[in-house]
Amino acid sequence: MPEELRISSRPSLERPTLIAAFRGWNDGGQGASLAAGYLAKLWGAERFAEVDPENFFDFQATRPHVTLEEGVTRRLDWPATVFYHGRPPGLDHDVVLLLGIEPNLRWRTFTDIVAGYAKELRTELVVTLGALLADVPHTRSCPVTGTASDEQLVERLGLSASRYEGPTGVVGVLHDACRRLDLPSVSLWAAVPHYVSLTPTPRAALALCERLGDLLGTRIDTEELEEASAAYVDQVSEAVSSDPDTATYVEELEARADEISEENVPSGEALAAELTRFLRDRDRENGEPDFASDQ
Description:
Elements: E1 5-7, E2 17-23, H1 31-42, E3 46-51, E4 65-69, E5 73-77, E6 81-86, E7 95-101, H2 107-120, E8 125-134, E9 144-148, H3 151-157, E10 160-161, H4 170-180, E11 185-193, H5 202-216, H6 223-241, H7 244-259, H8 268-285
Parallel strand pairs: 2-7, 2-8, 8-11, 9-10
Antiparallel strand pairs: 1-3, 3-6, 4-5, 6-7, 9-11
Helix pairs in contact: 1-5, 2-4, 5-6
C-alpha cells in the first residue's frame, strides 16, 4: 500500500464506478468540480480515503488555506484529493467519487496511486469529468462529448474514439495509468464560454451530470443545478449587455451554435487543442513567451 494513501475506512462496495474531477487545467469555469461536488452532496457520499498532498504539491503555487471556526479556532486546510462512496438512487451498484486538485509534482506516481486503488476497489469503470474553454455562448446548453480509447466502450456507450494529440492534464495521465492496469475508462468534457472563464459555470456542471446519468443508466436529480444555471445566464447576460462589442460577439456565437447539429459538436479533446491554440495566440499578441508550445 503506498504510504501517501490514507484509508480511514473500508466500505463494502458492489461493482463500483469511479467518477473523478480535478480542479485546475481540466476544470474550465469550475464545471467539473462543481458537478462532482454536487453529486457528493446529492448522494450523501461519505469520505473513506485520501491522498496525502505532501509529495505532490508545490505549496508556494497551491497554498493551504487558513479558516476560522466559530471565529476563534484557526484551521489549516491542505490541497485535498479525497475518495467518497455512495449508492445513487436507481442504481444497482456503488459509486466512488474522487474530488481533488491537479497536483504540481510527480504525476506518474500520483495517478498510479489513484488507478491502483481503483483497481483494488474492483472498480468496473473510471469516468473523468472535465470542462474546457471554447467558443460557445452562455445562453445555450453546454455541449458535452465523451471519449474512450477502448473500442468496445466506444460502441457500447455511444462515445467517440479519442483522436487528440497535444498537451494534456492530470486527467489524460490518469487515463494512461488506467490503460496500463486494464481499467476501462471514459472521459466526459463540457465546453465552457471562454469570455466568462473566471466565473463558476453551473450550466457546465448541469450538462455533465445529465450526460453522466445517461452513461450510468439512471436519472440524476439536477433541480438545484437548473436553478443555479438560470441565475447564471441572467447574471452573465446582464454583464454582457453593458459591452456592445461583447454582446455582438455573443450573438454571433448564438447564431453559430444554432446552426451546428448535435452530431457535429467537436470532441472534448478537440476543444483542448482549440484552447491551446487560443492561449498561444493570446500570448503572442501580448508579447509574452509561448508557454503552450513548451508543454
